[in-house]
Specification:
single chain; mainly alpha; Growth Hormone, Chain: A; 2 domains; 15 helices; about 0% strand; globular
């Protein structure tokens, strides 16, 4: 009986990793091509990055309705709907390119935000599969390995398909985005996840969301996730513009981002084991320290070495910080509360990413690359202090 349960768990975990690999390939396609297509379709040069920003906004706004659907219908049904919208979004975006219609293209990237919100919650689905709290970090880390595969698939799809239709450059890449979502559909339909828990079956009463959000555990976990993901997204968006502005080539900038994305997901092979050995707070703090070190390294010079090394360090720091913060979040809620708490956390995290996406170009223009890296350091320091205070409170508790 136990063997059958373990087999089913491994099967579901494998399906989630595969779905993460396909669904996680969509953001690199949108982010790498959204600005170029925007320049091609928009009559206003300042609106060229709007499709990417709208995608990030769509992701943030979709976290709450996606969580509501998961709570009512179950994760599998919501994930299948997300993949269907992923197919539609790619087709709509490609049609926007084919008909030179900027608004249609933006609608396509906005629809992709709901699919992305579902993909981001695969890590929480992995925690539902394991019973022991000590195994949750390993489960999150294992699913995030799919992001490493996605980091390879996404850019390669862009390279192979951007000129597939010479009359409409880049349309082929968005049709391919739709095809990747279509491939994910049978995987998601094959999932056998735990059903949504009703209040009658779940242990304990559900606390109001505002009460949970005021607890120190939630504040620290959410702050760590917001700062880890927000700063990573902000600097990743600004870095290519800064590199080109400093005289480096577009190819060198693209290579820097590729190394950064690989560094974001490669540590997932061992991050869960590190968390099990050293603890969630310790690895989260290490990730934040690495993000701060990435900013300090960027301040040391403007050579290609400084940019690339900073981006690699930023990627590894994000992995430790974000996976650690996600694992910390699982301690903040009872089973009956998990859907709404996870949704609030992701809304705050990806809302921050959306704001960073909208503001990175303008802040780079006004404050400069050095100003951005100096400005990030106090944010890292604040969360490190919060983690330290939480660790002290934990030690002070009577055994």
């Amino acid at each position: 009986m136990q063997s059958d349960k373990s087999t089913q768990q491994n099967r579901n975990m494998g399906l989630l990793v595969a779905a993460q690999s396909l669904g996680g390939a969509s953001p690199p396609i949108i982010i790498s091509l959204g600005g170029l297509v925007g320049q091609q379709l928009s009559s206003n040069p300042t609106a060229s990055t709007l499709p990417v920003s709208i995608y990030q906004l769509g992701l943030a706004l979709s976290t709450l309705p996606a969580a509501w659907l998961m709570n009512r219908m179950g994760r599998r049904a919501a994930y299948v709907l997300g993949a269907i919208l992923g197919v539609i979004s790619g087709v709509v975006a490609a049609q926007g390119i084919a008909h030179s219609h900027f608004i249609t293209f933006c609608i396509g990237t906005a629809l992709a935000g709901f699919y992305a919100a579902c993909v981001q919650s695969y890590r929480f689905a992995a925690t539902d599969l394991v019973g022991e709290p000590g195994e949750q970090a390993k489960a999150i880390s294992r699913v995030m390995i799919g992001g490493l595969i996605a980091a390879i698939i996404g850019p390669q799809v862009v390279i192979w398909t951007r000129d597939l239709q010479p009359a409409t450059p880049f349309a082929g890449s968005f049709y391919s985005q739709a095809f990747l979502a279509l491939l994910a559909l049978p995987l998601l339909m094959a999932l056998r996840l735990p059903p949504p828990q009703s209040k009658a079956l779940a242990k304990g009463e559900a606390r109001p969301l505002a009460e949970i959000a005021r607890t120190p555990q939630f504040i620290v976990a959410c702050a760590a996730g917001v700062v880890s993901y927000g700063l990573m997204a902000f600097l990743m968006t600004a870095a290519p513009m800064a590199m080109v502005g400093c005289g480096h080539s577009v190819g060198e900038a693209a290579m820097g981002i590729q190394w950064h994305v690989l560094a974001m997901f490669a540590p997932s092979f061992f991050t869960g084991k590190l968390i099990s050995r050293f603890g969630k707070r310790c690895i989260t703090a290490l990730g934040l320290l690495m993000i701060g070190a990435a900013g300090a390294l960027a301040l040391m010079g403007l050579d290609i070495f400084h940019f690339w090394s900073s981006l690699i360090l930023l990627g590894v720091g994000w992995n430790f910080g974000f996976i650690g913060a996600t694992a910390m979040l699982t301690e903040c809620y009872r089973p009956v509360e998990r859907a709404k708490v996870q949704a609030l956390n992701d809304f705050l995290v990806f809302g921050t990413v959306a704001v960073a996406s909208f503001g990175s170009g303008q802040l780079l223009h006004t404050a400069g690359w050095n100003g951005i890296n100096i400005g990030m350091l106090p944010l890292v320091a604040v969360v490190l202090v919060l983690l330290g205070l939480q660790a002290q409170r934990q030690k002070a508790k009577p055994v």
